[in-house]
Design a protein that fits this description.
single chain, alpha+beta, four-stranded mixed beta sheet
């Protein structure tokens, strides 16, 4: 592989993992053929380790690095069908941080990241309590996604959360 930073590292890890899985599969087949229960236990333990590694990689792939919210890949891969329609009924609310470019310009990108993290964490905490996922769609645009019809109570929690964010003063 050519050197593409983290992507290069991840692709090498994937290639090695595929090779390990192939060897582990062959070991399991041999253990079955030979009625080797110890080898089968080892293969089972290895399979569980692979499942954990895959789960961690999926989480990393579907999570925005800056905010910890789901990312656009999550939306596309988990919530949209092949026609780019929502897979389930529910509600989708689009959020954007107004005047964010001014924050970055006046206070620097590190300050902008702090604002993004704060807003995201607050929204995630409040919205997750009522079953709403937060997705960082791009830049300062977020999507709050409910897989069920939104009740008046949920709408109020959502609005209260937005009002709480708006009431914060950043220094």
């Amino acid at each position: 592989f050519k050197n593409y930073g983290d992507f290069d590292k991840q692709m090498c890890e994937v290639a090695m993992s595929v090779s390990e899985i192939q060897q582990s599969t062959q070991d399991a087949i041999n253990a079955i053929d030979n009625n080797d229960t110890d080898a089968l236990k080892d293969a089972s333990a290895q399979l569980n380790e692979y499942k954990q590694r895959i789960s961690a990689l999926e989480k990393e792939m579907n999570t925005d690095e800056t905010t910890g919210a789901y990312n656009r890949k999550y939306l596309i891969n988990h919530e949209l069908d092949k026609n780019e329609q929502m897979k389930t009924d529910g509600a989708l609310m689009r959020l954007s941080i107004n005047n964010f470019a001014e924050i970055n310009k006046e206070h620097g990108h590190e300050s902008g990241d702090i604002v993004l993290k704060f807003v995201s964490k607050l929204l995630q905490k409040k919205l997750a309590a009522v079953g709403i996922d937060l997705i960082r769609y791009m830049g300062v645009q977020f999507i709050a996604l409910s897989k069920e019809a939104v009740s008046k109570k949920t709408e109020k929690i959502f609005q209260d959360t937005v009002d709480l964010v708006l009431s914060k003063k950043f220094k």
